[in-house]
Amino acid sequence: MATEIGAYTAVPIQIESDASHLIENKKSVWRLLMFLIPGIITITVVAIPFLRQGLSESPSVTLLDGGGRDWILDQNEGLISPKNNTEFALGALEFPPLILTERDADNVIRFDKQTLSALSKGDPQELKGIGLESSTEHNFENAFDFILTSSAPDASLTLKYKDSNFLVLEDMSELVLDISFGKYMPGNTVNFLRAQSSSPFRTFQSGGGRDWILDLEEGIISPKHEPKLALGRGFQQLQLHKRGTKGVWKFDNLDKLINGEPMKLVNTDGLAMGKKLDRENIFDIWRYIQSAEVEDPKKAISIKYIEDNFLAIYEEDKPEKDALVLDVSFWKMFEFNSVNYVGGWCYANGNCDDEAKLRKDSSKYD
Question: Where do the TM regions start and end (predicted)?
Fold first, then answer.
């Protein structure tokens, strides 16, 4: 995605659940959608059929097919893939990503002040608390190469502070720390990238999401153009991963889903996927909860395969019509895009008058 101040990689972002403080104009549907629903920022009405519904008076439908809620079960491989692009499968990162957060938040990363002081003078320094998900380089539209970061507590990287502005990997000097899409908001990911020599873009592009300041008093690193934010620790969630890659999750009990039974979302390695929060968030006509990896498999969500297409959260004490379903953010099929739990005011197409009345009572979301 190119902007007036540079170009940014299509690495998905994670928006924190409570982003109301970022909204300046609640009447702007486009800006609300950008801030409140996790996923990528660039969107079009053509690519997102449900957006047209959101701009109308029609009730939203949970079981809406034709996009990011259609899933296929590959029992031979033990994979769950989006029907509209079986190149991908459900998965998650091994480590929590590096993100932006509020500078006074609990998940902010505080570095040794003497280390930051030496870094500010141009000396390469090892920073603890930030690392790489892996050394694998990924390509974005033949314009950029990028490497995913991590914020594991025991991780470390040696960085240089180039021109008192750019944070560059010491052993890979052409990779610079970059804010995804140049969007200054809590939860947005931060990764390393370089512009390909054949592209019209520059790696060391100042004026945007690659400009950083070192706060020696607080021991934090902040975006130069939004010092209220700082580098912080993110969390793992469901994503699309290319089949055959390390992050793909495999399941040995997909027969339960095929037979109409609920299945815990726990993979063959014992990793479990749950909810970031139990409480639903709401935007206009959509309800949603972010997915999040959980340590205790007992806290994993259970899912059911509905109409050989949808994967709905199953809860014994909750009516099926109130369930949320797995949804690819903005229905965009690209590597590392997030998958969350989304629902409408109406469960299925048909007479939705009763369910639509819920839109008038948003007290449980306040």
Answer: 32-51
